[in-house]
């Protein structure tokens, strides 16, 4: 079936529409005069293959001092729009002006205490009491403790909360949402952004909350943007934006919407507009075409093309369904001139002068105080977690010192002693007289004294096989004439035959696959020989200098004569563990805060992610 043909628009209808359109004229000045002004906002999620367009050229105008109800089905993009307004997300294209500046720009005060933000999640520290929660958010937003305490009693009363000394985690879900709401209200911000504040709140209390919102918009000129799924509760709003398909179906006062669409409830209006929107773009385009044609026809040809530098080139006004309407410049000029009520003075944010030192103003004292206090309070309330976090590295360090860093002992050495069999060796090991026999056995006694294990093998090949199988860390081979050759080497010195030198050497082959073990084994084998030779020289009345290398190690300047690996490695290990502990604590805390929405809330209040990390690290 063909879609119904569009009706032609009468002049009175056109005038009506123009009146609505004029309230959304879009010049740089008017954008900055609004509490919030969004123009041609586009926001999409996902990559090339699965793009999810959430905002599709959306226009929104929130005048100062009004309650603006943002309505729409679940998942239509309300939270996304709000997080772009508070500066937590960026648009893919389009502009946002908040309280006269662009969110995140210097001097705009957004994010910062000018905004009160209540996210959809509870976003509170469960371990804190209601009062402590208020103190934390109050300090972050520049209030003194006295000011916070004064407000806490009022808010507890207004929102019918239990005693301010109750911990947040012990409150019901609805009570927790009210504490979250109170935290946003606390510092009386210029712009209050509330994402579903009335979920889980009974009708009487809901009415109380709305009454308070009406009161603060009237008396304090606060602007409130509120999202809710209870469409009809927004009857008290000054303006509502019905959102669908990334655009607004309408942006008007509830009364005029009800009258215009001849409906009894805002839900009916929403349904009616949704049906109209579903009729398709073709019909909408033709309506838009009619409007613009008709408007253009009313302008004298001479005025077409006249330019006014006060109006920016991207000007557009939004109509029903949020469609941007191209309006001739001259018409835009005249509509601007018609609106005499608009104040001409501009908010000063953009002109704020910044000094060079402002770029280095990294830490604000109130933020520092709040963050340090919050972190210590959190630790204090989570003693178990903190004990684990601190106890774990302490246990790791103790285990390290007990198990790692000592000299390895009990290493197996495969010995092939052609001079003596194992039984003879056992006898001569005990010998203490100056008897130059079976010196290989006497040397092995000193090796054993180093707490290494000696395994005897008959041949070199079996000893090598043992090392290859991992049963020993090295082979020691003594020649059959080892003792004679060693004696001649000592007695004849430089005059000894080359063969004497060969036969008096202990042939050693180590498993070098583990550098530390092989270094320590080399050291033990050399020291064992020095001890053995020194002892032999002493009992035989030789000068010990004959059998030791001509190098003398005196008392060390620092540390013991035989340095300990634990003493060397422990400081590094302790520092590494402390570093990773701090990193784990910081990232853990930030992940918890991020998942629970507390981080987002803090960032909207003007906290800085980097600064927070540094405080947690400290
Ligand atoms: N970080 C994200 N990455 C990808 N998609 C997202 C992300 N955040 C939101 N979306 C999607 O964007 C759409 C709009 O989400 P949004 O949370 O803004 O909706 P909403 O109108 O606030 O919904 P509700 O009323 O249920 O809270 C949803 O389809 C959601 O799945």
Automatic annotation (TrEMBL):
Keywords of this entry: ATP-binding, Membrane, Nucleotide-binding, Transmembrane, Transmembrane helix
SUPFAM superfamilies on file: P-loop containing nucleoside triphosphate hydrolases
Top-level division of the source organism's lineage: Eukaryota
InterPro entries hit by this protein: AAA+_ATPase (IPR003593), ABC2_TM (IPR013525), ABC_transporter-like_ATP-bd (IPR003439), ABC_transporter-like_CS (IPR017871), P-loop_NTPase (IPR027417)
GO terms under cellular component: membrane
Topology class, membrane: Multi-pass membrane protein
UniProt keyword annotation of Translocase present: no
Domain ABC transporter: 36-270
Primary location group: membrane
UniProt subcellular location: Membrane
Transmembrane segments: 568-592
Keyword Protease among UniProt keywords: no
UniProt protein name: ABC transporter G family member 23
Originating species: Diaphorina citri
